[in-house]
Amino acid sequence: MSGPSNCPVAALSAETATPVTDVTWSRADETFTEEFRVDSDVAAENTTALADADPVLEVGDERVYQFSREAGPDATCACEVVESLGHPLADVRVEGGDLVLTLHLPGVERLQEVVSDLEAVADDVEMRYLVHAAADGEGRGDRTVVDRGRLTERQREVLATAYELGYFEYPREANATEVAEALDVGLSTFAEHLAAAQGKLLSETLAV
What we know:
By secondary structure, the protein is an alpha+beta fold. Helix content is 35%, strand content 22%.
């Protein structure tokens, strides 16, 4: 998801283009505390993005930071929003200013609830991939995780336009030239983006 704008971890990642990992949090009484690690050199060069966070200690080449705020019924922290719904987060990381959350849910209806609440505090919410699995391991079929995050925005646009125009239908409702014209690109550029996007998707779909 993009933002939230009040998250110093997201702000740091957006300014430095550096992924931030090992994000953890805790709540004591009415205080919500979040902790994360970042490269010491990156931290030294981006003090503005870390203005709301306090340095705790140095661990090798990394610096550990914490920031706290009052917890309340009107949560504006994405992590707090998800956990307030009773869903523990399995992993939290930040890439290019986007907060990436991993969580395990019992059903799609719970996912809709989480997305709805996150949209109230984030600039944009997007599901990168969804994995269905039976709790007992049965009836799983032959499912594969496909990470749409591997595609560039241009590759997504090319795939979406080609799909909408019927390029993948049989017989085709639009040829490569027509799709390229709709995208306002040359035929070779369209073919290049399409091949790259299909290659990424197939490498995950057919991976053993």
